[in-house]
Structures are given as C-alpha cells and as structure tokens.
Amino acid sequence: MSIEQFQTQTQILNPQERVRAKRLRGALTQLSLRAENVLYAHTRGISHRNRAGGFRPGYLHRVSGLTVLSRFGDGSLAPIHVLDGLPQSWVIRRDADGRVIEASPEIVSGFIRDGVFYTREEAMKAAAH
What we know:
The protein has helices at residues 3-11, 15-24, 30-39, 47-50, 120-127; strands at 56-61, 67-69, 91-94, 100-103, 107-113, 116-119.
C-alpha cells in the first residue's frame, strides 16, 4: 500500500479507527494509553465504565496470542491500564526509575473477561448487551 492510499484510507476512518490504526504502527506508551482513554471517555471502552460487567484491564500480544491482566510494578492487579506490570519481554524501554515508558508495538490494550480478551471496541459492544 502506498503512503497516499494509506492516508486516504485513514481519512475515511472514524476517530476510534484512526487511533487504532495509528497505534498499530507504533509502540504502546503511557501517552498512547491516555489518548485511548480520551477517545473512549464516554463509552464502555474504559475501565471504570465496564468494570461492573466483569471486564478487567489487560493486554494482548498480537503475535503470541498471550494475554495478561494489567498489573502494577509490584505485581498486584491494577484497576486501570498500567504498563509497569507487563512481562519483561514485552517492554522496549524503561526510565531511570525502572518504569515502563515503551512497550512493543505488538501489544494491544483492552479488557479480559472470563479469560477472553476484548479490544476496547469489542468490550464496548459486549458491555452494552
């Protein structure tokens, strides 16, 4: 796909699809998580709006298919998306204090319910039913 085709395709996507397309081209960071939260702020695609439905923030490694719940650096479960508890093999960079500042581009934030991973869009739809 040429850059012109990609730009044209991206222009016809809705805002959520544009953010997802951009994320698929880059690493997961705290900034990208914040951007997702802003985008999904008034939907069931964020932690505090779908928790009652049994959704827990988590991550999917698109290559391996492995999923993990969001955890703090000490290993305890986090009620929101936090990068510090990701498996070390998923981490690209840490800051001087050891906090994760960049995770692999293969990592997707979403939710886990009953052992099944849901993207933010899938969680929105499932929580609405």
